[in-house]
Amino acid sequence: SKVPPIILNNGVEMPQLGFGVWQVPDDEAERAVATALRNGYRSIDTAAIYGNEEGTGKAVASSGIAREDLFVTTKLWNGDQGYDATLRAFDASLEKLGLEYVDLYLIHWPLPSRDQYVDTYKAFEKIYADGRAKAIGTSNFLPEHLEKLIEATSVIPAVNQIELHPHLQQRAAREFHAEQGIATEAWSPLGQGKGLLEVPAIVAIAQKHGRTPAQIVLRWHLQLGTVVIPKSVTPARIAENIDVFDFSLDAEDIAAISALNEDRRLGPDPATFDVG
Ligand code: NAD
Q1: For strand 183-187 and strand 159-163, is the pairing parallel, antiparallel, or unpaired?
Q2: How far apart are CA 169 and CA 186, in angstroms?
Q3: Rounded to whole angstroms, how far apart are CA atoms 26 and 259?
Q4: How many domains does the chain have?
Q5: Do the domain assignments include residue 209?
Q6: Minimal-distance CA residue to ligand 1 atom 29
Q7: Digits of tens for pLDDT over the chain (276 positions)?
Q8: CATH, residue 88
Q9: Which atom of ligand 1 is nearest to the CA of 45?
Q10: Atom 41 in ligand 1: residue holding the nearest Cα
Q11: What is the best residue among 45, 102, 187 to mutate for testing ligand 1's pocket, by most ligand atoms within 8 Å of CB?
Q12: Whether the model pTM is above 0.90
């Protein structure tokens, strides 16, 4: 594959760059995932709430790529937290994906006000022990949630997938994850394609390297060591976003991007988010 892996804390290899499908309707997801797989992506990030596990699964099935060469992530939605509900929701996700196992299963949000994530994760440990998820982890967990989880359970999460981009660099969370052996995965790595790709410092670095702003931002993530899952439904951009393994940012570029941090979220605050 074009994409080098990172090694998770249980020895499983995860491609450092994958394809995200949030906000892509089911039929369009099938097309977009097929395009991504043709362009060399091997990791796909979906979720029960995205409503496109079926389309994702169809594209995977018709790709002709061996299952062991693919890395499929899905996520448990909020209303399905709790031990028994989690087991049922996982069965439904596998069924929609048409798979025997997923590579990574994540708790989508911690919902600290509901206080169910420990029980939920105990069901994840059962799924993991049964070999139906090759790795398990979390999404949108703050260090305090991870601390409580690790204290109460026995499998350290392999991954925590969090909002992370040059305007929200998450230094404290990344350091905490590194101390615990948890891989950091960046969601909305391109800042959802909003103002970030027009920031003058990023445009200047793009011109210097003869690359696009999206490629510069993805390269910044890769050199930080995080896993990235950019989303696009546009074939040229799908190709562009994986074409980032033949150049490097230098120390000056990295410093200029590091200076863009504003601790500014595009998505909800995990401490208070309680929907679904
Ligand atoms: P993103 O940062 O990947 O940005 C995607 C948008 O950027 C596209 O819709 C398009 O408008 C633009 N774009 C993409 N490639 C471009 C290019 N080459 N040039 C110019 N513009 C380009 O945003 P995202 O979809 O929010 O995040 C990526 C993935 O992360 C999602 O699809 C999903 O899989 C995951 N995610 C997870 C959570 C979570 O709570 N765990 C939340 C949001 C997203």
Answers
A1: parallel
A2: 10
A3: 38
A4: 1
A5: no
A6: 20
A7: 689 999 999 999 999 999 999 999 999 999 999 999 999 999 999 999 999 999 999 999 999 999 999 999 999 999 999 999 999 999 999 999 999 999 999 999 999 999 999 999 999 999 999 999 999 999 999 999 999 999 999 999 999 999 999 999 999 999 999 999 999 999 999 999 989 999 999 999 999 999 999 999 999 999 999 999 999 999 999 999 999 999 999 999 999 999 999 999 999 999 999 999
A8: 3.20.20.100
A9: 34
A10: 139
A11: 187
A12: yes
Contacts of 121 (CB under 8 A, 6+ apart): 107, 136, 138, 149, 153
- The number of CA neighbours under 13 Å toward the Cβ of 125 is 16
Ligand 1: centre distance to CA 242 (Å)? 13
Distance from the CA of 254 to the center of ligand 1, in angstroms? 21
How many angstroms is it from 30 CA to the middle of ligand 1? 17
Binding residue numbers for substrate: 108
193: CA distance to ligand 1 center in Å? Answer: 7
Confirm whether 198 is domain-assigned.
Answer: no
Q: Environment class of residue 234 by beta-carbon count within 10 Å: exposed (0-12), middle (13-18) or buried (19+)? A: exposed
Residue among 167, 212, 214 nearest 190 (CA): 214
Asked if residue 50 is part of any domain, the answer here is yes
Lining ligand 1 with CB less than 6 A are 20-22, 45, 108, 139-140, 161, 187-193, 197, 212, 214, 229-232, 237, 240-241, 267
- Residue at 161 is within a domain: yes
Catalytically active residues are 50
* Domain residue limits at 95: 5-193+226-246
From 72, 221, 232, mutation site for ligand 1 pocket: most ligand atoms within 8 A of C-beta: 232
